[in-house]
Structures are given as structure tokens and as C-alpha cells.
Amino acid sequence: MGMLVLLVEDAEVTISATTSQHLARIGVSHVELLQDAHTTAIVLQGWAFDPGPVDAIVQAVMPGLVVRTLRPVMRIVVGEAVDELLLKGRARPPEPPLDRRAPADRPAAAS
Over the chain, what is the mean pLDDT? Predict the structure, then answer.
């Protein structure tokens, strides 16, 4: 899963319908806005999202904003069941990518 965190200082952030459509086209399936009195964090996530071209993403999505970019360094799944699987040498399979096609366009499920 690709993830990108953009930090915006002292600026109002809005996600318009056009911005939302653009984000979906580049593979973003989840957007979260986190905020305190001075900073807004924009979290972009998606299985098909490649956060590599950060500058292009920022300018396409929020032109004119000056942002700091944070990239994931580590992801840890915690919990007793996960600990047991890791101790036994078995890992959970990755989740499949989200199928964005309309239900009518998806292949029929095997019975």
C-alpha cells in the first residue's frame, strides 16, 4: 500500500470533487485530514498509489501549497494473533488490491 503524508502550515486545505477524482485516478483510495491549530496533515493511501512523484502529485492535487512530505519508514502489525503467526514462521497474505470497476464490469465470481 502506498502512503504519503503532506504537512501544510497555516493554510486552509479543501478537497474538491475535481481533486478527489484526480486522487482516484492516481490510485488513492483513502484521504485523511488531521489538524491542530497550525498544521494540517493530509494522508493519502491506496493499494495502487505510487507516492514516488511527490512534486507532481502535490502540484496536481493542491497547486500553490507549500508542504513538507513524510514517507513511511516502517509498518508494524501488532496483536497476539500476529505474534503467534510470526513465531510459527507464517505471515498473513497481503490484502488484494481494491477493484474499482463497477459491479456490472467485474468478472463473475466462481461458485
Answer: 76
